[in-house]
Amino acid sequence: MEKKKRTIALIAHDGKKADIIMFVNQNKKKLREFNLVGTGRTATLITEKTGIFVKPMLSGPLGGDAQIAAMIASGECHGVIFLRDPLGMHPHDPDINTLLRVCDVHNVPLATNLATAELLVSQSSLLETSKFLGKVKTRLRRGKP
Question: Is the pLDDT assigned to residue 132 strictly greater than 60?
Fold first, then answer.
């Protein structure tokens, strides 16, 4: 029986798009083990520049971050690499904050820089953490240790 591929979201603000393309190029072999989704322009650029298919959602300002947050909440996305520009202002900051909060609520690994992105793809067992903790939460709600 073939193991179902886990899904990772790839997102990058404009000032970080070159970094995410470099990251994908350096980690092609590892990333091929996953289904990849991304916000509009980031997904398109990665696919064009690296040859690795990334399923595009809407662009971030048009709701792409919210779409990915919904995927996380429904268990369809298991990790996020979000190379953010911490010095820039973004009109869709509420959506970005929602995405970050949903990752925390559902215990989904979130990498916001290249160092943690590298850890996430090299230690894919981290993507199992949310599944394990979800089971623990369910047991605790039922009053079982």
Answer: no
Out of 14, 19, 65, 85, the active site residue is 65
Handedness of CA 116, 120, 126, 130 (dihedral sign): positive
Q: Where are the beta strands (DSSP E) in 1-145?
A: 7-12, 35-38, 55-56, 79-83, 110-111
How is residue 5 annotated by DSSP? Answer: P
What is the spatial distance between Cα 108 and Cα 68, in angstroms, rounded to a whole number? 12
Pull the structure tokens for residue 54: 């990334």
129 pLDDT more than 70: no
Pairing of strands 55-56, 7-12: unpaired
Q: In the annotation, is 95 catalytic?
A: no
Global pTM reads 0.85
Better pLDDT: 134 or 8: 8
Domains of the chain: 7-141 (3.40.50.1380)
